[in-house]
Design brief:
This protein is an alpha/beta fold. It has twelve helices and 13 strands. Strands 2-8-7-6-5-3-4 form a seven-stranded mixed sheet, with helices on both faces. A four-stranded antiparallel sheet has the order 9-10-13-12, with helices on one face. Helix 3 runs parallel beside helix 9, helix 4 packs parallel to helix 5 and helix 10 runs parallel beside helix 12. Bound molecules: 4'-deoxy-4'-aminopyridoxal-5'-phosphate. Keywords: Amino-acid biosynthesis, Aminotransferase, Histidine biosynthesis, Pyridoxal phosphate, Transferase.
């Protein structure tokens, strides 16, 4: 019954589909919060080298990648669960810990995979109204009861870009009863430059019911290879690893992710590109009198104050793919991924034309 009530995840429109449907060429896509720089050249070289061994199964325990992650984060490898993207980790949490009689709490306008993994195990999704487009932690805390098993928190949140400060988030985690797991989804961690933004991996030793999810899909530029990971107490990681498919992360992805971790300069370049691009977009929104939600991620939501579907269509006709987010309960907004300077410029030019003509 839960599955029948599900709406499928709606990915961004592929460039090829747009070009065929609308007869445009040279389209650009600012719709899936990818890294416009691509991956580190070191990650690419490692991926290419790994092709020599694709007749072998990957290391099902991801020994090398886990060792590198453990070193980077100052944790034991036993605290890590590797996923086929961090979505895999979110799904393991629901599959391993949540029964149909349980409740899973998350915020309105939060990441679309939370309702999917919750309803897929037939549990009840408890959706808490957002506060200023972000998580209302007090209301989320008040919703916890004996049936609650899992709380998802995206920090920063996709699609709104809102973020939670260390003190408020830690107070929330500390207040959770022992039967409730808190999954803090930090897919955009590397992009956040706010001083009070927490690294919750550092808290997992202290809170046995905390799981932090991270990914190589965003700042590391490896979305197509699908690698993410969870960090938790060894006891929780042991449970998550039991529901994991034996070879869920492929060998090319393992090699690329391990090499990507070492290239901190590439991540720094991605963050700088994002900072500059975000400035470019905000300047344009301000000039055009468009309201936006300040974002800590590599994307930003702009408010058209009327259904944005027509705006989305008009942008498509000019060869620019962005993301409609009506399915997130935000029909008047579009979410724009920060691109390269030239891509941002093309988007802004298209937007300016449409806004002026309307
Ligand atoms: N969490 C959030 C908040 C996201 O926005 C995304 C990507 N859209 C993910 C998790 C999943 O990313 P991946 O599975 O590629 O690691």
């Amino acid at each position: 019954p839960g599955v029948q009530g599900l709406s499928p995840y709606q990915p961004g429109k592929p460039i090829e589909e747009l070009e065929r449907e609308y007869g445009v060429t040279g389209a650009i896509k600012l719709a899936s919060n990818e890294n416009p720089l691509g991956p580190s050249p070191r990650a690419l070289a490692a991926a290419r080298a790994a092709l020599a061994d694709i007749h072998r199964y990957p290391d099902g325990n991801g020994f090398v990648l886990k060792s590198a992650l453990a070193r980077k984060h100052g944790i034991a490898p036993e605290c890590i669960t590797l996923g086929n993207g961090s979505n895999d980790i979110l799904e393991f949490l629901a599959r391993a810990f949540v029964l149909p009689e349980n409740e899973v709490i998350f915020s309105e306008h939060a990441f679309a995979v939370y309702p999917i993994v919750t309803r897929a195990v037939d549990a009840k999704a408890v959706v808490i109204p957002a506060k200023n487009w972000g998580h209302d932690l007090a209301a989320m805390r008040a919703a916890v009861n004996a049936r609650t098993r899992l709380v998802f928190i995206a920090n920063p949140n996709n699609p709104t870009g809102t973020w939670l400060k260390a003190d408020e988030l830690e107070a929330f985690i500390g207040a959770m009863p022992a039967h409730v797991l808190v999954a803090v989804d930090e897919a955009y961690f590397e992009y956040v430059e706010e001083r009070e933004y927490p690294n919750t991996i550092g808290w997992t030793a202290k809170y046995p019911n905390l799981v932090t999810a991270r990914t190589f899909s965003k700042a590391y530029g490896l979305a197509g290879l699908r690698v993410g990971y969870g960090v938790s107490s060894p006891a929780v990681a042991d449970v998550l690893n039991r529901v994991r498919q034996p070879f869920n992360v492929n060998s090319v992805a393992l090699a690329a992710a391990t090499a990507a971790l070492e290239d901190t300069a590439h991540v720094a370049r991605a963050v700088q590109t994002n900072r500059d691009g975000m400035g470019q977009l905000i300047e344009a929104f301000t000039e055009l009198g468009l309201e936006y939600i300040p974002s800590a991620g590599n994307f930003i939501c702009v408010d058209f104050k009327r259904p944005a579907a027509a705006m989305y269509e008009a942008l498509l006709r000019q060869g620019v793919i962005v993301r409609p987010i009506a399915n997130y309960g935000m029909p008047n907004h579009l979410r724009i991924t920060v691109g390269l300077p030239e891509e941002n410029r093309r988007f802004i030019e298209a937007l300016r034309k449409i806004v002026r003509d309307r």
